[in-house]
Amino acid sequence: MEGVGLGFKSLFKSIGKGITGVVTEPIKGANKKGFSGAVAGTVKGLAGLVIKPVTGVLDVASHTAEGIKNTATRFDKDNEQERVRPPRVLYGTNRILKSYNDHDATVRMFLRGFKKGRLLKEKFVCQAIFKDLRGQDTVIVIFVKTVVLLDMYKQKILWEVSLCKVESLE
After folding, report:
1. What is the pLDDT of residue 55?
2. How many angstroms separate the Cα of 19 from the Cα of each of 35, 37, 41?
3. Residue 93 gets which letter from DSSP?
4. pLDDT at residue 166 greater than cutoff 80
5. Are residues 65 and 20 in the same domain?
6. What DSSP letter does each residue of 15-45 carry, written as one string?
7. Which of 138, 137, 115, 140 minimizes the C-alpha distance to 125?
8. Label partner for 134 (CA 20 to 30 A): which of 25, 52, 61, 142?
């Protein structure tokens, strides 16, 4: 819409300049070269009365086409903006929306790279980050049907257990 608006603004300016040029151009010509300047200015003003609105119409077409191009390319991959933060996590089988939690969102985003994103299909419940014996960040992620232990430093899954196989937790 912005391109169309700029195009019409240019059109109306051009029409205005074309109309005022019929009066101002002969005066400018007369001031510079007398009667012959006034005649030349009149010709120039009359030519502007036709040419300037035509250029205004071309500006409308140009700005409109540019606006359409910008709209069409807005969603191209090349124009994609980087995320400010990872996407919000939906929790549990009912996909509950809670307050934004940066740790959960970061872990969820991190899971995109594992098993071709298969873990993203799992319904997230919670996660906990702790240091392993080497002092590296390790994350346990609990899904509705699975528990996963991730080595954040090596970026790999240490183990994955189906919750139906878990008999007890201590």
Report:
1. 86
2. 21, 19, 13
3. T
4. no
5. yes
6. HHHHHHHHHHHHHHHHHHHHHHHHHHHHHHH
7. 140
8. 142
Rounded Cα distance, 107 and 127, in Å? 8
Q: Please indicate, yes or no, whether residues 47 and 22 belong to a single structural domain of this protein.
A: yes
Q: Which domain holds residue 115?
A: 90-165
pLDDT, one tens digit per residue, over 68-122 is 777 776 666 655 567 788 888 888 888 888 899 888 888 888 887 776 777 778 8
Pull the structure tokens for residue 67: 């606006």
Are 70 and 101 found together in one domain? Answer: no
Read off the CATH number of the domain in which 115 is found: 3.10.450
Contact criterion met (CB below 8 Å) for 132 and 151: yes
End residue of a domain, out of 32, 50, 79: 79
Do 7 and 72 fall into the same domain?
Answer: yes
- Tally of helices (H runs) and strands (E runs) in the chain: 2, 6
Continuous segment of H or E residues that includes residue 125: strand 124-131
Q: Residues 158, 149: contact at Cβ < 8 Å?
A: yes
